[in-house]
Amino acid sequence: MNFLPPDFTPAYSEIFMLIMVCVIMLADLAAGEKRRYITYILTQAALIGCGVLTFVSFSAETTYTFSGMFVDDAMADILKIMVYGTVSAVLIYSYTYVSERGILTGEFFSLILFATLGMMVMISASHFLTLYIGLELLSLSLYALVALRRDSFAATEAAMKFFVLGALASGFLLYGMSMVYGATGSLHILNVSEAIQNGVGNHEVLVVGLVFIVAGISFKLSAAPFHMWAPDVYEGAPTAITLFIGSAPKLAAFAFVMRLLIEGMGEMVSDWQGMLVILAVMSMAIGNIAAIAQTNIKRMLAYSTISHMGFLILGFISADWNGYSSSLFYVITYVLMTLGTFAMIMILSRNGFEAENISDFKGLSKRNAWYALMTMLLMFSLAGIPPMVGFYAKLAVLQAVVNAGFVWLAVAAVIFSLIGAFYYLRIVKFMYFDAPETEEPIAVKSDVKVLISVNCLAVLILGIFPQSLMGLSLYAIQNSM
Amino acid sequence: MLFGFPLLSLIIWLPILVGITVLATGNDRNAQLARWIALAGSILGFLVAIPLYTGFDPATSAMQFVENRTWFERFNVYYHIGVDGISMPLILLNCFTTPLVIMAGWQVIQERVSQYMGAFLIMSGIVNGVFASMDAVLFYVFWEASLIPMFLIIGIWGGPNRVYAAIKFFLYTLLGSLLMLVAFIYLYQSSGGSFFIADYHQLPIPLNAQILIFIAFLLAFAVKVPMWPVHTWLPDAHVEAPTGGSVVLAAIMLKLGGYGFLRFSLPIVPDASHYLADMMIVLSLIAVVYIGLVALMQTDMKKLIAYSSVAHMGFVTLGFFLFNAYGIEGAMVQMISHGFISGAMFLCVGVLYDRLHSRQISDYGGVVNKMPAFAAFFMLFAMANAGLPGTSGFVGEFMVIMGAVKVNFWYAFLAATTLIFGAAYTLWMYKRVIFGAVASPAVERLQDISRREFVLLAILALAVIWLGVYPFPLTDVMHVTVDNLLEHVGNSKL
After folding, report:
1. What torsion, rounded to 10 degrees, do the Cα atoms B372, B378, B379, B381 define?
2. Do A421 and B170 touch (CB under 8 A)?
3. If we measure between CA atoms, which residue out of B461, B303, B293 comes closest to residue B382?
4. CA A219 to chain centroid
5. Cβ atoms within 10 A of the Cβ of B470, count?
6. What chain A residue is nearest to B209 in terms of C-alpha separation?
7. Closest residue in B to A472 (Cα–Cα)
8. Residues B452, B374 contacting (CB under 8 angstroms)
9. Which residue of A has its CA nearest to B192?
10. Is A481 helix (H, G, I), strand (E, B) or coil?
């Protein structure tokens, strides 16, 4: 019997990342407390290196490797590059914040990179087990990151909650996968899809499995009614970690849904479509209504995330490339806006002071007109007001929903986004209509200053010229289906 | 396009670019610079809009000055702009109003001057974009974007209750527009993937779908107009807004709603429009009669004029749903004339408010003794507001009443009561504020209008009289377009 080594080419970036994480862990030991910037630079270098590897190997063709457990297609490459960029931005934004709070440790960087590796594996999975391994690598790193400030009561509580509920959701997911395995006899996503198509397996068993899988997915997406962890974790975790949790993993979660639900169980659309409708409506309702009552901005943004995930799910309901590409467009713009928003919260936080309350935005336009303008762009974008890019994301998703014949769902969605507009407006109100509570100037490092400006202006410019990003989303989906 | 020159784009983007320049002048140390740039930019904005009138061909109903470029292919959206006889006068009105608004805020606004002036200029450009858009998404983007500067203007420079008014204004208008967006997406699907508005004009739609689309449009436009019973944001917004904000709201923003009916509701869903015409007429008449009575009872001058705006806009919607040329042309004339008159009325109140910091009628009295020139101007505008023949207020109302007589005598009768109510609330307010003995020491100290204020009011006075005596230049450009529209509305699309 001959042993044929698998083709490693499609997984070069993952392998590179793994090596770099190990190198960084060791290098950090050598560098020590004083020279932690070396770790930081190495981390950024790892992300850039991965970016180069993924970019160079980019092709519209789909390649399978490791006995079909790992896939490299256009969607995977595009999503991975987005993930690198997002993680890199997260690190730039959070460096000052993290070092002021004494959690700028070697673990911070290695955990973030492990989480990134987990996302990369999730994005490229074509087997239920690969998907699960990637997911757990991501989740476990996130639990630890939330608890990184172990002297903080809120952070440890949040980590505990996150872990217990996350483990439960993983259990759901595994249970659902095992049911599917029982019915179809395979864990390969392509084989599962084929088996369902050919009517192999007991339909009831498949549906039960599907229910558990959908529950697991909605937990990871923080869609209602599996959203309970999100507000607590967002509030309890240090803002830098919240920024991380709220941004890049959403890209991976999108891939997760695509691989599991669409590629794997796409034939059962009539079964999951109804479930997704309920998830979407509940998320939009609970997210938008509960956000109104919040005074803590991180908690408010957690509920806002829930409502945005409802919108994201809307795109999947139409079950065609049009809808998926709209969802992809939505998730990319969402990540862009979340990055900016949490970065702004960190900018307002000072050493020993956390800008946790919405009222900390009071009078920002008088303290610093530029940041106020940037935040206003973000808020109107989150509310879906043109010409910001958030509007086009909503337009794309609504178009997909109407196309699928769910006009009432589109009406419900716009009504909920009207409710949502209120709490985004409230932040604009605090910034522009109220007097500041403190006159303290806002000191920001120049790299953050540039990045936040680019980030927020991108929200406006992508809104005026949305074609590039829309075309990219369309390309990613059409070349991967 | 005139000699291939993108005139319309210039009209849209020039004010926006100047507005951004004004914003860039920064804080109040450069306030004077910001004012002058803003004034120069707004006057330039008006000047470049004049070729729109001179180069306009009134003999055709086709879109003119058309520019068409791909915007984003993903949803077949085009940067497609053009004007016809309906939108061209409204663009001119908007360009005409902007310099007046900039001048009105010259001295009163001392805080964040550059942001104030910048917001008005940017809004002016956006509103031009709304009137010129021929693509539904482009229209929607401009339509919603116009909310942002207005929201900030009310919220930052408004009165004591400004936050409430600003948020109410924003959410009210957003509610209507979001449903309109769903209607656009539905039309996009059923037209096979087009956001071009003229494609919708040909599209057959079943009656029940037409009615739903009509209602979605109605919510968007009725809130903007505003029609009874969704008018309640208007008095709040007007009372709290700074003078310039009130002028733009009354003169321009309300016209967006009226324009929407003509561009969307009537031609896209004509059968539903006919089907629901009675309801629309009744709502309009309620606005005319009931809101007229409400205006009578106001003690706050700005609120009174705000309610009078609702009543006058009731005439506009009434005219639209009579489905004859008198009605629609009258409504158009009424929109333009209301732009001049309500703008002037709010400026007059602003003149008083700047001096006494009160809008209460009871705080005034005998103003004519101290401000004779102002009293003369105010008299003219009050008469115009009441619909005196010879002023622009008369022409529109008369035409609409003529149109109403053709449809139903009682519609005309009820509509005509406005001539009584309008005169009652306007002139009674005028009497209490201007005539009588000097009411208080504060009034005793009043100074007559400055040269800047004189220029402002004189320009508007000329416009009001010119349109009242010789409205032909206005009706001439819209005549063919309105006929074409009526023909469209007459054809069933079931």
Report:
1. 160
2. yes
3. B461
4. 13
5. 10
6. A407
7. B74
8. no
9. A403
10. coil
- Token code pair at residue B289: 């009669």
pLDDT tens per residue, range B469-484: 888 888 888 888 888 8
pLDDT tens, position by position, B377-393 = 888 898 888 888 888 88
- Give the count of beta carbons closer than 10 Å to the beta carbon of residue A199: 8
Instruction: Encode pLDDT of A378-424 as tens digits.
Output: 999 999 888 899 999 999 999 999 988 888 999 999 999 999 888 89
> Looking at chain A, which residue has its C-alpha nearest residue B152?
A432
**How far is Cα A268 from Cα A204, in angstroms, rounded to an integer?**
12
Exposure string for A111-131, b = 16+ CB within 10 A, e = fewer = bbbbbbbbbbbbbbbbbbebb
Give the ranges where A222-350 is alpha helix by DSSP (H): 229-236, 239-246, 248-257, 269-292, 297-317, 321-348
Check: CB of residue B61 under 8 Å from CB of residue B481.
yes
- Mutate which: B74, B116, B147, B156, vs A, most A CBs within 10 A: B74
User: What is B86-114 written as a DSSP string?
Assistant: THHHHHHHHHHHHHHHHHHTTTT--SSHH
Position B189: which residue type?
Q
Beta bridge partners of A72: A63
Question: Across chain B, what does the average pLDDT equal?
Answer: 86
Q: Copy the structure tokens of residue B35.
A: 């004012």
How far apart are the CA of B141 and the nearest CA of chain A, in angstroms? 5
Question: What's the rounded mean pLDDT across residues A358-372?
Answer: 85
Q: CB B219: neighbour CB atoms within 10 A?
A: 18
CA of A464: which chain B residue's CA is closest? B71
Interface of A with B in 394-433 (CB under 8 A): 395-396, 398-399, 402-403, 407, 410-411, 414-415, 417-418, 421-422, 425-426, 428-429, 432-433
- Between A387, A396, A411, which is nearest B145 by CB? A387
The model's confidence at residue A137, banded by pLDDT at 50, 70 and 90, is: very high
User: Which of B72, B148, B156 is facing A470, going by the closest CB pair?
Assistant: B72
pLDDT at B138: 92
In angstroms, rounded to a whole number, what is the distance separating the alpha carbons of residues A17 and B164? Answer: 52
User: Would the pLDDT of B265 be above 90?
Assistant: no
Please write the tens of the pLDDT for every residue from A293-326: 888 989 999 999 999 999 999 999 988 888 999 9
Whole-angstrom Cα distance, residue A219 to residue B420? 65
The alpha-carbon gap from B423 to the nearest alpha carbon of chain A, in Å, equals 38
Chain B touched by A442 (CB under 8 Å) = no
Half-sphere exposure of A197 (CA within 13 A, CB side): 10
Query: How many residue pairs from chains A and B have C-beta atoms closer than 8 A?
Result: 89
- Tell me if A258 sits within 8 A of A75, measured CB to CB: yes
The number of helix segments (H) and strand segments (E) in chain A equals: 20, 2
pLDDT value for B21 = 87
How high is the ipTM of this complex? Answer: 0.89
User: What count of other Cβ atoms lies within 10 Å of the Cβ of residue A454?
Assistant: 12
CB contact under 8 A, A395 and B156: no
Q: What is the mean pLDDT of residues B408-432?
A: 87
Contact B301, B352 (CB under 8 A): yes
Most A CBs within 10 Å, among B77, B185, B211, B217, to test the A interface = B185
Asked if the model's pLDDT at residue B55 lies above 80, the reply is yes
**Tens digit of each residue's pLDDT (9 = 90 or more) over A164-181:** 999 999 999 999 999 999
Which of A:297-326 have CB within 8 Å of B? none
B-contacting residues in A 325-384 (Cβ below 8 Å): 369, 380
Q: Answer whether A292 touches B (CB < 8 Å).
A: no
Q: Is A386 on the interface with B (CB under 8 A)?
A: yes
